[in-house]
Design brief:
The protein is of the alpha/beta class and 156 residues long. It has one domain (3-151): Rossmann fold (3-Layer(aba) Sandwich), CATH 3.40.50. It is built from eight helices and five strands. The chain has helices spanning 8-15, 22-34, 43-49, 70-84, 87-90, 95-111, 122-135, 148-151; strands at residues 3-6, 38-42, 64-66, 115-118, 140-143. A five-stranded parallel beta sheet has the order 3-2-1-4-5. Helix 7 (122-135) links the parallel strand 4 (115-118) and strand 5.
Length: 156
Amino acid sequence: MDSILLDTSFCIRLMKSNDPLHLNAKDYFKHFLENKIEIYLSSIVIAEYSVKDDANNLPLDFVKIIPFDFFDGKTAGEFHSILINNKEQVSNIERNVIKDDCKLIAQIFNRKIKGYITKDKKSFGQIIQPITHSKGFNIYLLDLEIPLKNFKGELF
């Protein structure tokens, strides 16, 4: 994996030192930097993060900010359409979450970003998997709740 998109849930935990997942977020971020993994931050995530905190507090010097553009909008609409055709799979997820996740997945797809890190593992199977399966591409999904050492298979 040579590139990763950060989800809002990751950014919140990275910046909130009293969050139970703060250390996981710090460890992953350090891992991305040390392994020269390109770190992407969507303008959509910036908008979501800004609801609770100043986005200038994010580690902006270490990320590539990607705007949501016409092509992302077109792709996100196609992805949302896939999920609408599988209503029973996403019936228990808030509509705005589905729309925003489709936008982020569209940015991953359009820019050929390899990975995505989030705390919202529910979206893995209910939103991301149906889209990637239908469109024939893969995203390396990282669950923020799994500590880096476990992800890497280290014992200590």
